[in-house]
Every structure is written in C-alpha cells, then in structure tokens.
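Data card: per-record layout.
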Amino acid sequence: MADVARVAGVSSQTVSRVSNGDPAVVEKTRQKVLDAMRQLGYRPNSAARALKRGDFRTIGVITMSLSSTGNVRTLEAIASCASRAGYAVTLIPLDAPTQDNVKGAFTRLDELAVDAVVLIMEVHLLDTRSLTLPPHVTVVVVDSDAGDRFHVVDTDQGQGARTAVRHLLELGHRTVWHVAGPEESFAAGRREAAWEATLRAEGCEVPPLLRGDWTSESGYEAGLRLAEEAGCTAVFVANDQMALGVLRALHERGRRVPEEVSVVGFDDVAEAGSFIPPLTTVHQDFARVGELCVDAVLRELSGETLDRGTTLVPTRLVIRASTAPSPA
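The structure for this 328-residue chain is written out next.
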C-alpha cells in the first residue's frame, strides 16, 4: 500500500479508502490510485480486510444432494442473490444426511470463516432435538419442518399439490392417482398429504399410493403399474423427472396422454415444455426462495433478530398439453 501511495502521490490512508470502496474519495484521486495498483500489480488482500472488519462477506451453504432439481436450482438462486449483495458462497455438500455430517460441515465452515449458513434440508433431520448447531452462527433453513427452531424458507408444497389435484378433478376425473417421492423427503411428504386431503375433501376415492425416488427410472416403473389400472385416468406425479418416466411407460403400453390418461408433474423444469406431450406441472419459484434466504441472512447480519417460523413461497400451475377432460 505504501508503494501504491508513493506512485499515486497520495497517502496510504487514501489507498485504503479506495481499496474498501469508500464513495467519499474524489473520482480523479480514485483513478490515480487504481492506475497505480494496476502498474504495480497490487491486489487488496480480502482475507486480511475481513479479519480487520470482523466479517467475511461469505455465506456457507450445506446441502444434502446436488442431484435433485430443487436443490440445484435453489443453490443457483442463493448464489446469484448473494453475488448481487456482494457476498461469495462456500458450498459444503454432504454425502449422507446424518447429524454427525451436519455438525462436521458446520465445523468446516467455521474454519473457512463464513458470516452465516444456509441449510438446504430435504430430509427429516433438523426436527430431532439432539442436533445442536453453533449458537453464534446465523442459520437459515430451506425445505424443512424446523420452523420452531430456525427461520425456514420453503415453497408452499401443499398449495402446489392441491392446485394440481383440483385441476384434474375439475376436468371431470373421478379420482387422481399419485406417484410420490421418497418417504424421507419433507417436500414429498407435504405433496402426498395434500393430494390425499384434497381427494378426501372432495369425496373422492383415494387410490393406492405409488412411490419413486425422484428419478425418471422410478417414474417409469410406477407408470408401468399405472398402465395396467383400467380406472386410472389422471395422475399427479411428485416431480417432473418421474413424470417423464410415467409418460414413457404409458406410451409403451398404448395408453394415450392426455386422451386416456392426464398427467401433472411438479417443479416446472426447463425441459417440461419439450416433453411429449408438453407437461402440465406446478411451477416452483426457486429464485424467490433464494432471494428470501439471502435477505434473511443479511437482515440478521445487520443486527435484526429473525423470527422463528416458516416463510412459504407460492406456486402456480402451468397448464400444457398433458391434461385434458376425462374420457367419457
């Protein structure tokens, strides 16, 4: 910094103010300092500045999986929103959703020096009372039932499932079959519960549940079983990948979509409009989820106390060509 100050003809304090982005520095002076930095190859040491300020401008993210559409798109949204706010993101993916792994991830993030942590939780873990998280760390959770302990942000899974089922019932289908996600998933559980509750509220028979693991292969296996059910005219699938497998199985078994069987997915992946037929699905606003997570982190870092509880982001149904009125 002393060398930069000498070349620019300013004080070391002025170089420091330019390095820290102080808007009070006169533009002509700022340019002289920046020119000197480029001439000397000087770059401010962000780690040293962070230690001096006591903050690191970094948000840690712990996620259970990078294979699911929801986790990847939520992570992408968090990273984009954090970047716009001037924060970097440090990612710790876990190979297994155990309490020891979560504790280990917090320890590692503490060593890496982050200001806050976002947990993308899709499995039943934080509702257990034996999991203790560092008290000094700001924590925001995505996709969890831990609203009594943390600030949680999630898609309104129940609203999305209800909308999907009602859409099919309004088309005249007597009932709606369901291909659910894994039992350990919070999102899958909420969608399943809303599917069943909606059918019961409308006085409809609740068909046997089929379960997959979010993959198109598991959807294909469920679709083969559904194709053998003569009374199946409508299916709500818990995500778009499994819905793709269901569409393939129905096609192979000669069950036309939507003339004989209507299919609705969940997520609205980028390719959903290119399925054959284009898939009617529930759109999740992952960008809004990421925005609310980062906003909550920044509010607490600024001194505001976050309320415990869950903030739900609404969904919307995107109607395409995979649904039609029930066959006569």
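Known properties of this structure: The chain is about 40% helix and 15% strand. The chain has a mean pLDDT of 89.

See the next section for split statistics.
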